[in-house]
Amino acid sequence: MTLVRLRPVRDLAVLLLGTLTLLFFLLRLTGDPALVLAGPDATEQQVAAIRAEYGLDRSLPVQYLSYVGNLLRLDFGHSLADGSPALTKVLIAYPASLLLAAMAMAVTLLISVPTGAWLGARRHGSARAAVRWLLFVLQGVPGFVTALLLVQLFAIELVWLPALGSSGLSSLILPTLSVASFLAPKLTRLIEANVAAAMGSPYVRTARAIGSSDREILWRHALPNALLGATALVGTQFAFLMTGLVIIESIFAWPGIGWLLVQSTTSVDFPVVQAITMTVVVTVFAVNTFVDLMQRRIDPRLRHREPLAPGAGE
Amino acid sequence: MNAVVGLPVNTLGARYLARWELVCGGFLLALIAALFMLGPALSGHDPAFVDLQNRLAAPNSPGHLLGTDQLGRDLLSRLLHGLRWSLTAAFGATLLAFAVGTVLGLIAARRRSVLGTAIRQVTAFAQSFPVFVLAVCLVAIVGNSLVTVVLVLGLVTWPVFCRVVQAEATSLFAREYVMAAEMLQMGRVRLYFRHVLPGLLPSLSVLLAFHFADMLIAESALSFLGIGAPLGAATWGNMLQESRAYLISAPWLLLVPATAIVTLVITANLLGDGLRRHLD
Amino acid sequence: MNSTSPSARGNPVLQVEGLSVRAGSGELATMPVQDLSFTIAAGEVLGIVGESGSGKSMTAYAIGSLLPEGVAVSAGRIVLEGRPVLSLLPAERRALDGNRIGMVFQDPLSSFNPVRTIGSILIESATRHQRLSTSAARGKVIEALAGVRLPCPELLVDAYPHQLSGGQRQRAMIALALLNEPSLVVADEPTTALDATVQLRILALLKRSAGSRALLLITHDLAVASTVCDRILVMQRGRCVEQGSTAAILESPEHAYTRELLAAARWPAASGRQPQAGAA
Fold this sequence. Notes:
Chain A is mainly α. Chain A has helices at residues 2-29, 33-38, 44-53, 60-72, 86-121, 126-140, 143-157, 170-199, 202-209, 214-231, 234-252, 257-266, 270-298, 300-303. In chain C, helix 4 (134-147) crosses helix 6 (166-178) and helix 6 packs parallel to helix 7.
């Protein structure tokens, strides 16, 4: 039992170390890290000060160790934009992103699950073909293009909703729909595939053999199995979600970590970029581990491993 | 999948659809390739030529088929220049990811070795990692240029190919004819080229098409955010960003690049989907 | 199992006349079953024997109204207990399935929903067809599981398919088929997926449980058919090639194909192996 519990911790450690090292070498690859850290407008003095503060004049191994040491103490340095601690800046931006992510996820599920189930259960019909073609086209429209089109339609032409900012509930609608448009097409196809596979499976045939109706089969057999199968890919969906957040937050000036990331990278505020990268890595890892644990609890195949009465009644 | 009885019932329908998709996709691809080669010269204008007398001209204005933008630059030529940029970036990134991913995937499939295990771990983790975030960071740090975008996108998405190659190569290596060839001490390179790669080709070709679409979207997203493409360069992402201030007065500034991106992505999706159906 | 079957021994339970099944449509259509006719009386065991592709499974599915997408009965009649079933409305048909007809499938692992307990599907069948409450149904199910000689049935009811062995699962499947005391049991290759040692016991269980019901056994193995069946029907490429009593088929086969099958079977004539009724 203890071994199982320790594995996530070990994995996280390896992961963080790997990312740290990547960032470390990346900074040095692009030339003088002091220049990057000090920013484009720094004076010679400021650059020299940075160099001393970060110990960039020492040997590489020493630098690496002190770098890792700093990050382990959660000292990510200070933002070049306003001098505030980088990590704090990131943590302040988190709630806005979480809100947007949660809303978008909810909307996506509300759209994808019924649509996917409907498509997977029906095997033919013109309505089905039409919906599939619509999905196909929608998948070809990148999320940020959808966002811009939505803004064009609802904020500019119809002036129903605000185009920017985060004040009030109405400003949440367009960003949520935009992020959802990133996730919904792929998730719908995934659920459709899973439901279709379940409907064609041998255990559904058994259910038919005992007289179950199509509706009963869909609800009792196809959907549970399909959704269970879909949870395995929550991780990839989450990655999509993050991508969506970065772009959509920038379009709507939504004050989350996505917007912060873009701002920091364009102004080369490296300490903040670093802080964001590390927090994102930790978040992704936490989500994946959580999903893994949940799966272990929900999926009977993973929950009960031992055979019940080996050898008896053969 | 249909384990009830695997009768090829709907193959006629599926084959028809696959053919239709491939034909449409192929036609669009040919059109795009032609435009790519002709380039901005087709429009007779310089994409960077600023003409403040002629700002925000609507499409079908004299001399400007698609109109002009807020600085009077011809949209058609900017569109075509953006086409070259996007296609080159997406193509380059896909090729790079394909090359690195395939090589590493073959190594990882090649039984147990420390390197192989490491590759497998990285690939498994990368599946749920938001690589776009990483790409944003990297391009911003390294600098704005086409080469950077190609390198970063390619080097950040190789796990996509690696995963597929890993899985398929593992089963291929276990097939008898490959084992036989190995026992005959066929040279490794020859072994790979003659036996393993042809087996991988079907799924890889489908993946290439879809990955190309993803790279297109990623590149335009990056340049939309102001990352990767130099300021003022005629890329579709830039054009989309610039169009935001003129949504009321000149909606075509948004619609022209948007339509272009969507068309290209749908083309790639059509080809990928058609290939997948055809090869299933 | 006590013989509370409505048909007295000897009355025809299942009558199949001129059954033809078509798969696909247009130029790709095939006929897995062509002009098949046979009868099974109460208390009788009929075996349909043929190699893969002979249409024997399709026959079973046609009787059980389980034909896959795109496959349908194109001609003929199926009469169950004096009632023609092909023209029934879906709701009427569903009242028969699991009630007057019980199916036993080939692969017991995939035939049970992996994320639901063994008991859940049995309870579902009992509540539906016997109009019982869930708790009453649970009791009946435990009885049924005990009836097929499964150990600790009150535990097994809440067990998941992967927790049981192949033989145990097949016993559970038989329990499901017999739960509502059908007059016809159709078993499609019930022992093919099982270990050799287990096969004989399951066959014996089937025969014993069939009692006064009609049992249709589908198998590719003539030896299996000969141990359990009273009459045998040989199918080749969708058509009935020969049918008659087991003894007649085994000792004086008329058709060349039957003779081929005989030669290929694991014919236990020399060893005289028969399943021990007591061991089931």
